[in-house]
Design a protein that fits this description.
heterodimer, A: 447 residues, mainly beta, six-stranded mixed β-sheet, four-stranded antiparallel β-sheet, 15% helix, B: mainly alpha
């Protein structure tokens, strides 16, 4: 009896185990293919001339398309295709494009557009960005402006295309202010100059009678702050680009250097030197009240706000060599973030807040690099005999700096030029300026 | 006691048997079979390229161009009457007369040139006089043809072997030019061997002509029939072997597709942020391994996150890129990859 019961128990257990085993047959997994690698290469994009309803509009359409193509190509991310290979002409693109014509030439995106002269004299420009493979419109916008302003429309459209395809803000509708240099090395004439980021619309802002340095844009207004040696002593000035009005920021006892705006545009932070000791001060532009931020016998200079305005990076030699430090906006919690050999100078906090660019000098060689705000992840982007003074594009992906060539014994050489470079270290390009150039500053997107 | 002994003995015996022979493998998967390499020996002639097939038809046409010049076209053509009278004066034109029937009425000068040149253009544009493209490929061919044969066009109607070509005549312009081209091809007595080859130089010159020539299937239709014949036996062999094949794609097959798409995937922009992004794209495939449809699975994020959208669109471009189509999938396992999902992870990209 007991044995039979035991057997039955065993049999039941065995059967259930067997059933369970058979029931849990492995489910057939659905096919899934992982792609984790690809190629980094510029996207082939077709930007035909925009069609126009009149001769003037057609010319504007041609110029706008050329500027858009140049902007996108300069970013290093796009490869505008040769217009001679296009099968459809601009008039035919007024409706839906014939996508197979564009697939044939390997265009992955297509920009079609038209320019129209309105009766009230304004120019109407509209464009559409097409995904050629998916045969869909990605974005389409229209702009109205004065005919003279067609360049800005082109830059704005290029920004819209850049943003739609890469997901990041563009930087084409911006300006560069810099110091234009001329003359022999011992009698340099330095003038403030401003131009579009592609080098167009260049004009001088000062006449060169007084030496100027370190111009910086206001993030909110059309103003520039810079250093000028007027009357012997260097002073910080604020210049309004549109009106040309210029004023001294304040009469401080001593010398002031390296001014920068705060992100909200209400304050200017700078370094002031007296009795050989340079400290960092912040001045409120509305109240003209001055706040001292550092208090240390070392030289503290080149301050730069973080995009939140809550922190400041600067360089100081309080540790024995020129290194980078970060502190709170009120001057508290000073901490060192760079520890490499040589010296670190001219820090600039990225508008994205994730990186700080700097100039590094080691063994007589200059380099421009970036590091995270905590000092980690230091990476050199470019180097040379003299490369200095990095400034960020408003999208935090591109840096501009100036590069100076060495002079030989006869005093030849010594050219100084502006260059832009992608954060990855690729796509370094020279910005053409009429004279030598140094100390560039990149404006935010023009409002 | 005895029963206990027997029971215990049986249990011990089964335990020993288990140890000796192991558990029965009830749910062992079938061993994955390697795909048998199916091949069959075929002679070269069976697999020869299609153009050879075009040879027979040319023989028929040829002879008597002269008599046809006189009249000819009217019978085959629906509205030849009008053009005919002018034709009578110009001997060579006969070929053009067939086409111009419609066009000739407005333009009373079919005879004007020594036909070879003007004809093809007239012929083509029948429905659309302005359309220049179709004629383009024509003239060179017809000019070439001319010397041997003044009346290539009328031939088609008379010729049996080209009923398909003859039919399109009354029809729309589009198919016309290519059909005419096709008709012209077999004609050339002068160059029987390569009706095809003649067209090749034309194609090099004009991309539009190439595109137009690609659309109509009639000229191809002739060639395709012979081609498929060698294939069916092969496919039969493959399908006979199907029951023996594995139920999943092999990893090397998946790798082939992966490498193919990686070559086409190019993503620009983005920094560290893209490292966390994963994009799932579901694809529906045609039996010839081209993509029928794609869908980005996470539509909510696609609409709301610009960086996710740019990665997703770059992934979709990679899948739809003509350079990566068709995918390198085994055609005989269509059921396995009729629909599946790609997962794109750009973590190895960016700065």
């Amino acid at each position: 009896m007991r044995l039979a019961a035991t057997f039955r128990a065993w049999a039941v257990c065995a059967c259930t185990a067997l059933l369970a085993a058979l029931a849990s047959a492995p489910a057939s997994a659905e096919l899934r293919i992982d792609i984790t690698r690809g190629r980094v290469q510029p996207m082939p994009i077709a930007i035909p001339h925009m069609s126009g309803t009149s001769a003037q509009a057609s010319e504007a359409g041609r110029n706008i398309a050329d500027v858009i193509a140049a902007d996108l190509e300069r970013s290093g991310f796009f490869r505008p295709l040769d217009r001679r290979s296009f099968l459809q002409d601009p008039q035919a693109l007024r409706g839906t494009p014939r996508f197979q014509d564009w697939r044939v030439i390997n265009a992955q995106a297509l920009v079609s557009g038209s320019a129209e002269q309105l009766p009230d004299g304004r120019l109407k420009v509209e464009f559409r960005l097409w995904d050629v493979f998916a045969e869909q419109q990605m974005t389409g916008l229209a702009y109205f402006t004065q005919p003279d302003n067609w360049r800005r429309i082109a830059h704005i459209i290029a920004d819209a295309i850049y943003k739609r395809i890469t997901g990041e803000d563009g930087y084409f509708d911006t300006r560069i202010v810099y110091v234009a240099e001329s003359g022999p090395a011992n009698a340099r004439v330095k003038r403030l100059a401003i131009m579009d980021q592609d080098g167009a619309n260049h004009r001088f802002l000062t006449d060169g009678r007084s030496l100027v340095m370190t111009p910086r844009f206001s993030p909110t207004t059309q103003e520039i702050t810079y250093l000028a040696y007027g009357g012997g002593q260097p002073k910080v000035y604020v210049l309004n680009i549109d009106t040309g009005r210029q004023e001294v920021l304040g009469n401080f006892p001593g010398m002031t250097f390296a001014p920068r705006f705060s992100p909200d545009g209400n304050r200017v932070i700078m370094s002031m030197s007296s009795d050989g000791n340079a400290e960092i001060y912040a001045m409120d532009l509305r109240t003209r009240g001055v706040q001292r931020l550092t208090n240390h016998p070392s030289i503290d200079t080149s301050p730069s706000y973080s995009p939140t305005g809550r922190e400041i990076v600067f360089n100081s030699d309080r540790g024995g060599a020129q290194q980078l430090y970060v502190m709170n906006a009120d001057g508290s919690n000073v901490r060192r973030i760079s520890f490499g050999k040589g010296g670190y100078a001219t820090p600039a906090w990225s508008p994205r807040g994730d990186l700080i660019a700097f100039t590094r000098i080691e063994g007589g060689k200059f380099s421009v690099g970036v590091m995270r705000p905590d000092g980690s992840g230091e990476r050199i982007i470019t180097e040379g005999f003299l490369v200095e003074s990095p400034t960020w594009a408003p999208n935090g992906r591109v840096l501009m700096f100036f590069r100076q060539q060495p002079t030989d014994r006869q005093g030849r050489g010594g050219q100084s030029r502006l260059y832009s470079i992608d954060l990855s270290g690729f796509n370094e390009r020279e910005i053409l300026t009429p004279q030598d150039a140094s100390d560039p500053a990149w404006s935010p997107l023009i409002p | 006691m005895k029963r206990g002994l027997i029971g215990s003995g049986i249990l011990h015996a089964s335990a020993v048997a288990l140890v000796a022979f192991g558990l029965p493998e009830l749910f062992r998967k079938e061993p994955r079979e390697d795909v048998p390499v199916v091949f069959e020996v075929v002679t070269v002639s069976e697999r020869a390229t299609a153009p050879e097939v075009a040879l027979p038809p040319p023989q028929r046409p040829l002879p008597k161009p002269v008599p046809q010049k006189v009249e000819t076209p009217p019978p085959p053509r629906p509205e030849p009457p009008k053009p005919e009278p002018p034709k009578a004066e110009a001997p060579p034109p006969p070929p053009p007369p067939p086409e111009p029937p419609k066009v000739a009425a407005p333009k009373p000068e079919p005879p004007k040139p020594e036909p070879p040149k003007p004809e093809p253009p007239k012929a083509e544009p029948r429905p659309e006089p302005p359309k220049p493209e179709p004629p383009k490929p024509e003239p060179p061919k017809t000019v070439a043809e001319r010397p041997p044969e003044p009346v290539p066009t009328p031939k088609p109607p008379t010729k049996k072997p080209e009923p398909p070509k003859a039919e399109p005549k009354p029809e729309p312009p589009k198919p016309e030019p290519p059909k005419q081209a096709a008709k012209v091809e077999p004609k050339p007595a002068a160059k029987p061997p390569e009706p095809r080859k003649e067209t090749k130089p034309v194609r090099d010159f004009d991309v539009n002509a190439v595109l137009n020539n690609l659309r109509p299937s009639a000229p191809r239709a002739q060639n395709t029939p012979p081609a498929p014949t060698p294939q069916p036996p092969r496919q039969q062999v493959a399908s006979a072997a199907a029951p023996l094949l594995s139920q999943n794609l092999s990893s090397s097959e998946i790798d082939a597709v992966r490498q193919q798409i990686e070559r086409c995937w190019s993503f620009i922009g983005g920094g560290k942020e893209v490292a966390h992004i994963e994009v799932d794209i579901r694809v529906w495939m045609n039996p010839d391994a081209t993509v029928q449809d794609t869908r980005i699975v996470d539509q909510l994020r696609y609409q709301s996150d610009p960086l996710y959208r740019s990665v997703a669109e770059s992934a979709r471009r990679a899948i739809r890129n003509p350079e990566c189509s068709p995918l390198r999938l085994p055609r005989d396992k269509y059921e396995l990859w009729k629909t599946f999902t790609f997962t794109f992870r750009p973590r190895d990209f960016g700065t």
